[in-house]
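Self-study notes.
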Amino acid sequence: MQFKTFVFDAYGTLFDVHAAVRRHADTLGPDGQRLSELWRTKQLEYSWVRTMMGSYTDFWRLTEEALDFALAVMPQIDPSCRDTLLEAYWRLDCYPEVPEVLARLRDRGARTAILSNGSSDMIAAAVDSAGIGDLFDAVLSVDAVKIFKTAPEVYQMVTDTFDIQPAEVSFQSSNRWDIAGAHRFGFHTVWINRAGLPNEYLNYGPASEVSDLTAL
């Protein structure tokens, strides 16, 4: 095995960000998927804008603000679903292959970690709900540095935690922009392209592209 340290983004990589809306699809109706996509888009946009402004707000608050915006744009969806959707976001489903892949890596002697924009409480809840807490050596949240990806300070948390060089890390994310930031920092990058999206940021990785984590 070439790498001994495997680091994973959380949302979209280990956990299905659309699971909260899908769980209540019958109540939300035909516009539920559009709501979920807009919610996710604004959640990420708010993190990038806060970083550019130098004004940190934890990811849970951005998640709330993003859902409020999505509901305002889509008045055909009953706004009373807000609290239900936010509660469901604390218990997102992990992708089916995740527990087996993590267990296999650890059986091979690898160290594993999460590096996420999510707040510490959000990530702890997701990991606990999925029952995979014992499969990680470290769970790292940007709360520690109060800035979001793709700032280099975020990726440096990995090298500081494990006392290693960037080139010794295999970093996995479903977010192409995250892969670009990790590549720029010096990580070996694996893009988990679950949605089959076209490549972008062509000068910034990835080292490889796969459809799910089983390729690891």
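Second protein, same conventions, sequence then structure:
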Amino acid sequence: MLRWNKLWRLWIGTVVCVLSGWAQAGVLPGPLVTPQWLHAHAREVQIVDLRDNLNTLSDDPKFTTVNGRKVLDAVGGHIVDALSVNFWGLRQKRDIDGKTVDFLLPTADAFQASMQAVQLQQDKPIVIAPTGDDATSLQEAAFFAWELQLFGVPAEQIALLDGGTHAWIAAGYPVDTDAIAPMTSSAWKASAPNPELLATTAQVQAAQRAHKPLLDARPLAQFAGLERTPVVPVFGRLDGSRALPAELLYRQAADGSWRFLTPAQYKTVFALGGVTRLQPGILYCNTGQYAAGAWFVLSRILDLKGLREYPGGMNEWVQRGLPIASF
């Protein structure tokens, strides 16, 4: 009888664990959540604040008064109990042909160490909160979402707070200005990079030879060779690529926060921009950020399968001395 009791408790424990896992996986309503949803479900997820200036975590929000109404200008503080990830820690320097190149994809071990240091927990749904002050913050959050998925987190366990902390504050919810300083680390584990999400330089070259879809997610002026960046100090694009301009992917809401569009709006905007048929292919930009924003829109919001990102982008391509197309 004692043996059967132990087996019964073991079986019950297993069922509870499985049901708990299903419940966790089903917490998120989709790839985007609203401030209202997050406020109601904050205890069921781990909120991860993602920004490129950690100094603002302890600042007060900045407001101005317009026609007698207080309007949020810039995010300060963070959502209560949020974890903190520094966007600049999501890339690392690596050696390419004897040259040290910055802004490249981290190894699985390096990414794992970073996530453990911020106390990310395994198998608990993640809501990434960008500042939402500009479109760049949404791209940065999308890049983090792509890396999490690349290193093993299931897509259904990752969502972005649409409008970010800006929309959270504008909705009247509180923020904390205490420093986020974890005293311990977690046991979070990264998997080897998922090859279905990642494109190598050799795969980009193969796509060029086979005339397969290669999408440039930078601003249109960069694709056209009219502008360049300090990181990639040359004009041009990858030969055979088509533009998927970053300008088409985001909008500023009435509360001042930057947000993604709806699926129906994307289809209309893409058609107006000349992108009438969405196809799986390889996305690239300068260092991965613009491309990740496009990946999030196409893969997570529009559910387009078969997309890969070339995270080294123009930065890695140029450092390898490979040819680019220009006027």
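Instructor comment on the second fold: The chain has a mean pLDDT of 91.
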